[in-house]
Design brief:
Elements lengths: L2 H26 L6 H23 L3 H16 L13 H11 L5 H19 L8 H20 L4 H14 L5 H14 L2 H10 L7 H19 L2 H17 L6 H16 L6 H11 L6 H24 L2
Helix pairs in contact: 1-2, 1-7, 2-3, 5-6, 8-11, 9-11, 10-11, 10-12, 10-14, 11-12, 12-14
């Protein structure tokens, strides 16, 4: 394994430990009626993060797949629930907010700054080649944690306690990005991208770059609306439209990739499948219609999508 892979595995193990803590938290909750299945879900998830790469290297990737199927079944039967959380009372929260004020955003700023600086240095300094983009994000979490501990001077154990509590609150939706990303890779391997490329070639004229840009951006948005996430759309539409109709014609791959993913997010604004963004806020705000957030976002999404087409046509070639 390379240095970058070793560092990445360390971060994956740390994430796995957080999942283990959530499982233990469930087992300790005597008021939880589904503690066994809830704990089993989090322990299986931790297992995939900690042991996944080793199983793949040992040609036992099917074990990871089996664990994911079991996790899906546990979720489908409603066996994964949120457990009891010990949260501070409102007066304590207000007192801490008044004490730290906007300084509480320093750790959050550390995440962004460290991730950008780390990824930049990792790509330019040979001695820091292990600092890939993903590892830079992991490092930024460490820096932010240290900054938070120095700022609040709290017991370090709360990093684990509140980390598990936050993961418990997010619940099973926390692994949705990984699953959708894997789904995109699955669709690509199944040839969905090639099928899309075949049918697009029947519609898009051979040398029409503008129409290809429009189809590429629109495809990203529509596929995201179906799947609820841009990760799944990206690999499929990139293979089906981006590479054969844009990059092969001389488009800058970096610009095509960047604008493709943000074009996909235009679709995120228009779909109830993106529940965390569009349905949950409507429920929290108690709007008359659960689609009110989507309805208000559609005009902006259309404008941004058309802007993406223009930017892609102008900047990529």
């Amino acid at each position: 394994m390379t240095a970058a892979q070793i560092v990445a595995e360390v971060f994956y193990c740390v994430i796995g430990l957080v999942f283990i803590l959530v499982g233990v938290k469930a087992l300790k909750d005597d008021g939880c009626s589904k503690k066994a299945t809830t704990a089993a879900f989090w322990f299986l998830l931790a297992f995939t993060f900690i042991c996944g790469q080793w199983l793949v290297n040992a040609n036992l990737a099917w074990v990871v797949g089996a664990a994911i199927v079991v996790m899906a079944c546990l979720t489908a039967i409603g066996g994964v629930v949120q457990t009891k959380n010990d949260v501070p009372d409102p007066d304590s929260v207000r007192a801490m907010a008044d004490k730290y004020g906007y300084k509480i955003f320093i750790p959050a700023a550390c995440i962004a700054v460290t991730a950008v600086v780390g990824a930049t240095l990792g790509s330019k300094v040979p001695a820091l080649s292990w600092l890939t983009a993903n590892n830079a994000i992991g490092l930024s979490g460490v820096v932010a944690l240290i900054a938070a501990l120095l700022l609040t001077k709290c017991d370090p154990k709360y990093a684990a306690v509140d980390g598990a509590r936050l993961m418990d609150n997010v619940n099973t939706t926390g692994i949705l990005p990984q699953l959708l990303s894997a789904l995109g890779a699955l669709f690509t391997a199944a040839g969905v991208g090639e099928a899309i490329s075949y049918y697009v070639s029947m519609v898009v004229p051979e040398n029409s770059i503008l129409i290809a840009c429009f189809v590429y951006c629109l495809g990203m948005a529509l596929f995201t609306m179906i799947m609820g996430n841009g990760f799944a759309a990206f690999s499929v539409i990139m293979v089906g439209v981006g590479i054969p109709f844009l990059i092969s014609k001389g488009a800058n791959p970096t610009i095509v990739g960047a604008l493709g993913l943000t074009a996909a997010y235009c679709g995120t604004l228009c779909t109830p499948m993106a529940a965390n963004f569009n349905i949950v806020p409507a429920a929290l705000l108690e709007t008359k219609s659960k689609y009110s957030v989507i309805i208000s976002q559609i005009p902006f999404a259309v404008c941004m999508l058309l802007t993406h087409v223009v930017l892609l046509y102008v900047l990529a070639f």
